[in-house]
Amino acid sequence: RDRQQPAQHLRLTAGAQTPDAGEQPARLVVLGGGPIGCEMAQAFARLGSQVTQVELAPRLLNFPEPSRFHF
Questions:
Q1: b/e burial code for range 47-67 (CB count within 10 A of at least 16 → b)
Q2: Please, is 3 exposed, middle or buried when counting C-beta atoms within 10 Å of its C-beta (0-12, 13-18, 19+)?
Q3: What count of other Cβ atoms lies within 10 Å of the Cβ of residue 14?
Q4: Exposed/middle/buried for 7, CB within 10 Å: 0-12, 13-18, 19+?
Q5: For residue 36, what is the DSSP state?
């Protein structure tokens, strides 16, 4: 990262509002690959931010296989 520009932290919690359109970060790291993390990554990418998404599971939206659901 550019050493002359400090990293900015954006923490969104339930009920929080996203920054105004002119305030989105140029680069963003989203921690978590669940539904909310994927939605935030997609939203900021559409606004023009370069997004990196980090997830500990082997894949994003790591839900059980559909064949394991019993309806």
A1: eebebebebeeeeeeeeeeee
A2: exposed
A3: 5
A4: exposed
A5: H
Per-residue pLDDT of the chain (71 residues; tens, 9 = 90+): 455 555 556 666 555 555 565 577 888 899 999 999 999 999 999 999 999 999 999 889 887 776 666 65
Structure tokens that stand for 8 in this block: 């900015």
* Contact (CB, 8 A) for 55 and 62: yes
Residues in the chain: 71
Structure tokens at 66: 């559909």
In whole angstroms, what is the distance from residue 41 CA to residue 49 CA?
A: 9
